[in-house]
Amino acid sequence: MLLLICGLVVFLGMHSVHMVAPAWRARQIAALGEGGWKGVFSLVSAIGLVLIVTGFGGARMQPYLLYSPPAWLRHANALFMLVAFVLVAAAYVPGNHLKARLGHPMLAGVKAWAFGHLLATGMVHDLVLFGPFLLWAALDFAMSRRRDRAAGTLYPAGTARGDVAAVAIGAIAWIGMAAWLHRILIGVPALGA
Fold first, then answer.
1. Whose CA, among 31, 71, 81, 118, lies 20 to 30 Å from 65?
2. Lowest mean per-residue pLDDT among 53-57, 70-74, 85-89, 164-168
3. How far is CA 37 from CA 49, 81, 125, in A?
4. Is 127 left (phi over 0), alpha (psi -120 to 50) or beta?
């Protein structure tokens, strides 16, 4: 569990620098250049991700039940995951209404992913993994929206074409994860079947 916690601190810490130390981040970008900062950011994030994956795998070997969710919540989680995949796709597909309305659909997608998994799983290691991601995404989303309003940031208007593309890409990715990838990457079927 300690490795998982260390990974979360490293990964989420690096992803929180823009919130908690924007001046320090700006100095690093000035000193290293945009590419240099992105390289350091990517390296530290990758180290954190490896620690999370390794730590979570180890923590799953010593499961402690915290609560026992009803089976129907696994199906509710599947719907949360569909929403999460569409939101993440909307972060990258240009000209969609989700991006225009939310500004930060990736963070909204992380919130949906973490919340859905907290509903459907009841082990301590699940709470330790998904709880911090939910908290981080909620804080980052709120701060990013506040920053956007203060700066008068406007996102490009959405189009039906952009909406269809975001939903289609998200749905296809969701089907792939639910049908095959969750079992391959995580070791358990998406719906627990």
1. 81
2. 70-74
3. 18, 31, 32
4. alpha
